[in-house]
Amino acid sequence: MNAKLNRVLDEIKRTEDKIAAWQEHLEELNIRKNQLEDAEIIKSIRSMKLGSREMLAFLENIRNGAVPAQQGQHIGEARQEEIMPGEAENIREPEEAPAEREDREDEENG
Q1: pLDDT tens figures, 48-92
Q2: Alpha-carbon torsion, ordered 82, 83, 85, 87, to 10 deg
Q3: How many CB atoms lie within 10 A of CB 70?
Q4: How much is the pTM?
Q5: Cα–Cα distance between 92 and 110 in angstroms, integer?
C-alpha cells in the first residue's frame, strides 16, 4: 500500500483514539461538576437549620416555584475547595491526552 496513505490511516486511528479519550474525560468532568453542585445544594439547605417538616415544606415551595431563586451567583474555586477539600487535584488530563501534531513537512515532501 502507498506509504502516504498508510500514514494518513495511522493518523486517523490515533485521532479517533484521542477523541474517545477526551470524550471520556469530558463525561467524567460533567459527573464531577454535578457532584459538586449537589454538594453545594445540600450544604446550603442544611445551613438553614430547619426542622424536618419545615425543610420538606421549603423544598416543596422551591419545586412549585414559590421561592424565588437568585441568579448570577457563581461559586469561586476557593468556595468549591471548601465544599469538597482536595477534589481540585482529582481533575486531570485523560490518560491518553492528545499530543501536539508532528511536523508534517516530511509527509508533504516525501
Answers
A1: 999 999 999 999 998 898 877 666 554 444 444 454 555 555 556
A2: -130
A3: 5
A4: 0.53
A5: 38
